[in-house]
Structures are given as C-alpha cells and as structure tokens.
Amino acid sequence: MCTVDLHTHSSCSDGQYAPAEVVRRAAEAGITHMALTDHDTAEGIGEARTAAAAYGLRFMAGIELSTSGRARQHILGYGVQPEHPALQTACRLFTQRRLHRAEKIARLLQSQGLAVTVEEAAAEAKGQLGRPHFARVMMKKGYVASVTEAFERYLATPAVRAIPDPKPTAQEAIELIHEAGGVAVLAHPFTLQLSEAEFPLVLDALCGVGLDGLEVYYSKHTAPQTAFFLSCAKVRSLLITGGSDYHGEAVKPDIFLGMQVPSWLAEQPLPFL
Q1: SS3 call for 270
Q2: Any idea which of 20-24, 117-121, 130-134, 168-172 has the lowest mean pLDDT?
Q3: From 19, 74, 78, 248, which residue has the greatest number of CB atoms within 10 Å?
Q4: Which domain holds residue 139?
C-alpha cells in the first residue's frame, strides 16, 4: 500500500489553502504522490510543482473540468501543460462564465434579504469564483454558521440550480485535456448516482470519446463501490486513480488529505514529474 492524493483543490479555485500550503500539508500527511486538480483552472500548478519538488513528492499537473449534460460529470486532466494556448483560452472562458453566474447568484441572494455582493465574494476567491466564496461572506456576516448551512439554505436551492451554468460537454473536456498533453479520468463516479447496470453504459460512452481512466479510490466511495468501479476499470484497461477531493477543513470538514491505495496504482504510466 502507499499514500497518494491525486484529487486536491487550492485557493486558486474553491479550496482553503494556497497551492504550496496544500503541498506542505500533503508532505506532512506522508503522501508520496499527489496532483493539484483545481476546478477549471491551471493557475496554481506552477506554485504547487515547485513546492512538490522541494518536499520530494512525485507530482502531476492537474485540472478538474466540470461538464454539461444530465449527469454533469467531472473530468480530471493529469499531465496537462498549464501554459498550453488552448487550455489557457478555455480557462479564461470558464472564468468569464463563472463571473456572469456569480452576478446572478448575488442578485438572487439580495432578493432574499442577504446583503452579499459579487465584489465581497470575489475578495474571498483568490482564483475561480464560486458558491463557496458566497458561503464564506455569509458566514462572516452572520447569516449562516457554516458553509454546509449556506448551501443547504441558500446556495443549493432549485432557484440557484436553475441559473444557467454553461459548460463543455464531456467529449469537449476530454478533447481539451488531450490537446493540452494530458490524460482524462472520470472523477468520483459514485456521484453520478447510476445503478450497476447503468454505469457501464455511461462509462463505455465516455471511453468511446477518449476517456483514459477512472477515479476508483475516492474518499466517499464505500468498499463495495470501490470494488465495482475497480472491476469496471480493469475490464476496459483504464488507468486507475485515487484521491480525496481535499478542499481544506473550512470547506469540506469531513474530507482529509491522503488515500491508502495499492502500490501498483503509483506504478501505472501516469504523467508524474
């Protein structure tokens, strides 16, 4: 067994800590292989890569792309070139779309009597602006006691979910990752809430448009789920990855850095530096 974490987030998206601090905490937790996979941005990769080299960690440059469609799959990209023109252009577009959506969320919250502005949320966001940053403003102003309460009462309501959130298709996300030099992996498959009969059909469709791997080991997967996803990955000869989805204790207090995985996972042809 070995300790890895190939699914982490920093303050460049919706995580609590700066990229270098995420790496420091990973090293402190005994992690040997890690990736930074911020949402829709590669901004923190350089800082994390430098810190990983200083701590002697095997590191992968990563990104997590949200996609459109009923299932709203998340696709992890490993080994992407953060300076690749196509990736940079796409990330700028993602940022613009997030800002437009944030403006609509702010107006909705204001209509409910909450004095929360986009500017205040943006001040909490060192990178990609999202709902967790509104939650932090709401906590500071005393509207809620926690991020969880903010989502339950205000930020995960049908009204917020109805606000348009344009995203690439899964195929477009996979193609972008490949163009930027990376491999594409389906993240946290249990969140798709598909039956054991339905999931292989969705997985086959993704493989048909170039999917390279599956996040089998995940902090919220049960042992039976892990076994099922492992069998799905092996029969299709997919890369097998594992990660916690760490955001920091202030954002996701029930998720901690590090996953115990079989040693062979780190020996696969993954693009570690």
Answers
A1: coil
A2: 130-134
A3: 19
A4: 90-161
For 189-231, how does the pLDDT look when each residue is reduced to its tens digit (9 = 90+)?
999 999 999 999 999 999 999 999 999 999 999 999 999 999 9
Tell me: do 80 and 10 sit in the same domain. Answer: yes
Q: What is the CATH number of the domain that holds 145?
A: 1.10.150.650
Instruction: Say if CB 31 and CB 4 are below 8 A apart.
Output: yes
| Same-domain check for residues 181 and 247 | yes
Give 219-227's long-range contacts (Cβ < 8 A, gap of 24+).
219/243, 219/244, 219/245, 219/255, 219/256, 219/259, 220/188, 220/190, 220/191, 220/245, 220/255, 221/188, 221/190, 225/190
Task: Say whether 163 sits in a helix, a strand or coil.
Answer: coil
Express each pLDDT in 136-160 by its tens digit: 999 999 999 998 999 999 999 999 9
CATH number at residue 204: 3.20.20.140
| Same domain assignment for residues 100 and 206 | no
This prediction has a pTM of 0.89
